[in-house]
Amino acid sequence: MNGLAPSGRRAALAAAVAAAMFSCAPAAWGQGVADLWRAAQQADAQIRAARFELEATELAIPIARAQLLPQIAIAAGDTKINGSRDITDAASGASSSSLDYFSRSRSLSLRMALYNKEASARVDVGEAQVDAAGAIFKVRRKDLALRLGRAYFRLLFALDGVSLAQSAVETFEESVTSAASRLRGGEGTRTEVSEAEARLDRAGAEVIDARDRVDVARRALQMIVGLDTALVQRPPSPTRVLAIDPAGLDEWLARVDNSNPEILARQLQAEVARREVTRARAGHYPRVDMIAALSRSANDSVSTLNTTTSQSSLGLQLNIPLYSGGLVDASTRQALLLVRRSEQDLEAERNTQRVEVRTQFLAVANGGARIEAFEKAVRSAEVALEGTRFGLRAGLRTNLDVLNAQRQVFEARRDLSEAAYNYWLARLQLKAVAGESLDDTIDEIDRALRVPMERRPQVATIDAWPAN
User: Fold this and answer.
1) Taking a C-beta distance cutoff of 8 angstroms, is the pair 335, 280 a contact?
2) Tens of pLDDT, residues 345-363
3) What's the CA angle centered on 461, arms 459 and 467, to 5 degrees?
4) Distance CA 90, CA 380 (A)
5) What DSSP element (H or E) covers 89?
6) Lowest mean pLDDT among 95-99, 243-247, 280-284
7) Is CATH 1.20.1600.10 the right assignment for the domain spanning 6-86+98-464?
8) In angstroms, rounded to a whole number, what is the distance separating the alpha carbons of residues 262 and 141?
9) Average model confidence (pLDDT) for the chain?
10) Which residues pair with 76 in a beta bridge?
11) What confidence category does residue 281 fall into, taking pLDDT thresholds of 50, 70 and 90?
């Protein structure tokens, strides 16, 4: 490589940057983020709890509708009567007799609401609650996707940290050997050897810390997906950049207003509050029920001993509320205040999500430029290291200069790794905030990371962004 011209050496280094950063990626890549996403939807405790909450809320409709459906009841009673009966007659005088008999009754009754505005309003409220619960479940899925993304990319960054730390150990071992050789040849000093050994010891400690971070990251990811994450490996193409579609911020802001899960949930919660106002006002309305009954009784009382009575009845019952202590008026005012609160919550949520989509759009749009800049930084640091080593051999640089140049190479590679994973996380967050399909988004990221890179597409620049 020393025989290459400077331009040829720089081109060779540029071609080798990706291989130098991610050379440990296996040919047969293990668990990808799409595999983990499918597992997380079944294993994560928070999403399971959200699913049970959704199913429980869906029962609000049949619970409310039950008040409008027929209410049928059967009643039966057997009563043992013991006592005495005293009769005073003017002709025969007083007489007494003991009582010992059973009183039996059987009845079948039916009540059905013909007009019940409050019950109908409760059904409307239940339907709105189910819609809101469905939107909240989408929010929980979005939260799961973001938690998974953070845990996944944190693990990948930790794996890169181990690789970089191990590479630093190997490099500083060579520096120690070189410094010791220079000392034996009379060109170096013991200070140079000590400096190289100190860097080596520090790199060894960083390997231990990096492995600990990998273990913690694996366990955090495992809690979400419920799988052994030992098969999660570093992907072949973490520095790939995809074009933003659409490329303008205004389109993303429009998508947030129309499709953001949190905003949709707030809108539906506001609708629930508005329907609660109608339900509260319905307390002033009359209620009309149809009542039907069949009954049969024997020995109802002492005067009907040895008598069996059978009856059937059908009628209407009207119930008009006149005064309930101010309950209806107070409940209505309370419901109206809750509507206002929900509207303010919606406006606050809309503002929050618009800021979030702007933040993630800028992170994605700048992500490609950041990755490219850090790739150049890696190349420049490697060229500087090569020049520093040449200067050391020529007597123009010290061993400390070489050690510092080596440290800059490792820091540049670490920054490149962090920028790459931050870009993918920002892309996931951008599409999740905009209400894009989580399944499609995660599949897209998974495919991009799996396929080896060929060339980078053109990405949006700040000149294409709107002025607002």
Assistant:
1) yes
2) 999 999 999 999 999 999 9
3) 140
4) 130
5) strand 71-89
6) 95-99
7) yes
8) 11
9) 85
10) 106
11) very high
